[in-house]
Structures are given as C-alpha cells and as structure tokens.
Amino acid sequence: MKSTIPDAGVPIAPPAQNGGDRQEASLHGEVLLRLRDYVVEGNIPDGARVPERQLCEMLGISRTPLREALKVLAAEGLIELLPNRGARVRQLSQRDLEELFDVMAGLESLAGRLACEAITDEEIIAIEQMHYEMYGHYLHRDMHGYFQANQRIHESIVAAARNETLKTTYANFAGRIRRVRYSANFARKRQRWAEAMREHEAILDALRRRAGSELSDILFQHLRNKRAAAIEHLTEPQEDAPASP
Amino acid sequence: MKSTIPDAGVPIAPPAQNGGDRQEASLHGEVLLRLRDYVVEGNIPDGARVPERQLCEMLGISRTPLREALKVLAAEGLIELLPNRGARVRQLSQRDLEELFDVMAGLESLAGRLACEAITDEEIIAIEQMHYEMYGHYLHRDMHGYFQANQRIHESIVAAARNETLKTTYANFAGRIRRVRYSANFARKRQRWAEAMREHEAILDALRRRAGSELSDILFQHLRNKRAAAIEHLTEPQEDAPASP
DNA sequence: AGGACAAAAAATGAATGCAAAATGACTTCC
DNA sequence: GGAAGTCATTTTGCATTCATTTTTTGTCCT
C-alpha cells in the first residue's frame, strides 16, 4: 500500500493561486476548516498515515500552514502526532468511544439543566415541532430524516442552554464521534428506536416543566442508552446489512 | 508602554542550545508546555499583545515552532489570534467566566456520576482522608491548605470517573479558569466557606452510597455556588484586602 | 535462500527569507 | 491648531531551505 489516502485525486482546494475572490479567513484557517471536515467525514481511513507532502499538494499550499492546522487538529483530538513519524488519524478504541459518549452525555445533560433555566416557550414549541417531525420519520421508517430531526433537537437543547463555551465544546466532541458512522447502523434496531422515542417524550415533558435536575438525568440516561446501542453495534457489526459499502 | 510582558528578562528556557540532556518532547511540544504554563500562571496581563519576536527571544527559538504552539493555545481558548494582528491573551468577560464555571460544573457533575459506578472503597477512604485534612485547614483558617485539599478532592473524583477524555477536558477548562485568581479571594467570605464544607460532606455522603444521580446534582450545585461567589467577588472586588499586590 | 547491515531516499522538525498588512510618525492641508 | 494623508518601520503570514530522523532498498554474509 503506497498512497494511504483513498481517492484524493481531486485537489480539495481550487487552484488557490490567487484567483479566489472569497477569502474566508487566513490561509491556515481555511486549511484548518477543510482538513477538519475532510477528516471528520472519514475520507481518510482509520489510523492511516498522512504524509504532509501529499496533503500540501492536495490543498495547494506549503507545509507551514498545513503543519499549524495539524497541530490544532491534534489538540482537538482528531489526529495524533507521533514525534518524527508524522500524523495519523486517531484510531478510536472501543474504550475511547465509550469515554466520548459519556462525555457527550455529560455535556447534553448539562445543556438540559441549563436550558431549563433559560429556554423560552417559543423554543420549546419549536422543539415540540421537531419532535413531531421526528415521530413522523419514525412512523415512516425514514431513518435519515429521523436522525436529522433527532440531531436538530439535541442541538436546539444545547443552543437553549445559552452557553457558547458549551456549544463549542459540544460541537468538538460531536465531530470526534461523527467519524464513527454508528448512527446509520445502530438505529436499525427497532426496539432501541422505540425506546428512544419514549425517552424523547420524557425529555420534552421535563423541558416543559423546566425540571432541570430531572431533565439532566433523563438526558444522561438517553445518551447512555445510545452509547450502549452504538457499542453493541460495533462489537457485533450488523444486524441487517447496510446498503452503502 | 513598550514591552507588554512584565518581567520577562529571564529567558524561560535554559540555554536550550543542545546541552540539555533531558529532551521531554519535540521542541514545539516543549514550547507549548512552557507557554501554556506561562499564560495560565498569569505572567502576561489580560488582553496584552504578545509580539512573536519577543516570545521567540524569550524562549530562544525561531518563530515556526512558536507559531505552532500559539495556534494550539488559541484552539484551547487561552489566547486569541486576530488575523494579521497577532496573539492576545484572551480577555475573559464576566459572561465568559460564568459560562466556564457552568461547563466545569457540568464536567464535575458528570465525573461524580461516573465515579459512583467505578470508585473503589479505598479511593473513597482516600477522599475522606483529604476531606478531614481540608476540615483541619478550615478550622485553622489555612486558606492555601484548604484550597489545595479541595482541589485534590475534586481531582480525585474526576480520576475516579475512569475517563481519560473527561480528565483531559477537565484539565483544559481548569487551566482556562485558573488565570482568574479567584480562589485566593472569594474564599475569604466565611459564610461561603462554611457552606462549602457542608456541601463537601454531602458529596462524600452521596459518594459513599454510590448515589450517582444525587451526587451529580450536589456537585453541580456546589460548583454553581462557587461560581456565584467568584462572580460576586469580581464585581465587588475585595471584602478584606488581600496581602498580595 | 533468508536475515542482517548499510547506504540512499524520503519525510519530519526547525530556521530563514520574502511579501503583504498593520502600526506609528511625520508632513501637509484646511 | 487640528485632522487627514503619506511614508517608514515593525510585524505577521507563508514559502523555501537546511538539518535530523526515519524508512526503504540493495547488498553481503551465513
């Protein structure tokens, strides 16, 4: 195996010489965003070595801004930098995943608690709306729609917490986990799906009553159950074969 | 005002040419550790501009590894990088502090919950020991000892959670807050001090019973009260003058 | 033929150099 | 006298270059 990156034939960046009109940020910032997405979306196989040279060509930049971006990604926990031996996509062990899920659970739990202090009736109504949409997707077995709605609900709760620091941290961890494409698979278990719907109803109920401590508990348990389903799915891969390769 | 850094006469790094036998990590890693400590310990005034050149001379290195370290510190939230205008120590608004305290509260709350699942009797005994030590410091009005014991207790709970990811994240936020030297001041309020002792007893009690959900609540409230005391202290600076300048 | 050693090739880590942007000072004009 | 414009200096951003370390390849010996 020579090139560790799968089909990186197409440069991520346009020529980028200077023609680009939009200049969203400094070069290293742009590179950071691109690289982060690239890694989060799973374009690089787990644990694969990523030669700097190759990334440079791919992005059309020199090594200096690239290395700065790599350092940041390493600090974010997406990749790991072995001294003198380059960057690798961080391989998440099952234990790592468990830990990440638990931290996410803690963050959502906190978000719920804080949200109860600050959320407006309108926001609750909006979340109820998403909940009904989600229920519709559930009934139609529309997994993709279900998960999008689900994600929006959780993000709305985080947003209602009125805490930018929390929001940023949450997004960071969500990115780390997103590499593991658990969602599309573990949700196929019908039983878990029904359970999740019930939990979501309990979440809404606690939210309406602004019962912070209670909501905190429910959210933690909800995420814990998600974690269990995800981990179970990993150890015993598929219960019915997914369509995507 | 020319040099924004106070008494940076002494280079942080020893000669560092090559004589040093110990080589803890790569240069940028070493620089990162040093710079982080330097910032966390508050050696640079809030919002002060930090010319790269000056830091380079101070550390005896070139700009490349320094800039890498700065990017990481920015990602960690300790400094902020304004495009084309250099690095500034991140100025924490009161709102920022509130947010940070709340996230810390959430993390400790999570730590408590997880600790209840995994903590051993020996660890609880060790924490009880620290608790009694802390009580001793409390009785002797030994603020410094009290805070050290207090910090050790909270760190022990985090350690008992058996979650390295949580531990790292916790340490990160602790570092961000540490810049604000609240501890030495707000603790002078006797009433709050007594309250905190009572809360700590409740924490121990819940921990002994492995009552995760309950401990989670107590810890959150405990940190919330800390936050209130810290913020109050900031708005209405000292109730009795501190000895240190 | 298989393994160990050595040299070449490549990749990483750090330093230097160069262009662009910002800061500051000075001049000029109203 | 004050404000705006212009030029010099400083500083940042990125590319290039140099020095080490690692990895690969080729050869030799058992």
UniProtKB/TrEMBL annotation, chains A, B:
HTH gntR-type domain sequence ranges: 25-92
Alphabetical keyword list: DNA-binding, Transcription, Transcription regulation
Annotated stretches, region: Disordered: 1-24
Name of the protein described by the UniProt record: GntR family transcriptional regulator
GO-annotated molecular function: DNA binding; DNA-binding transcription factor activity
Coiled-coil ranges from the UniProt annotation: none
SUPFAM superfamilies: GntR ligand-binding domain-like (SSF48008), Winged helix' DNA-binding domain (SSF46785)
Pfam families (UniProt xref): FCD, GntR
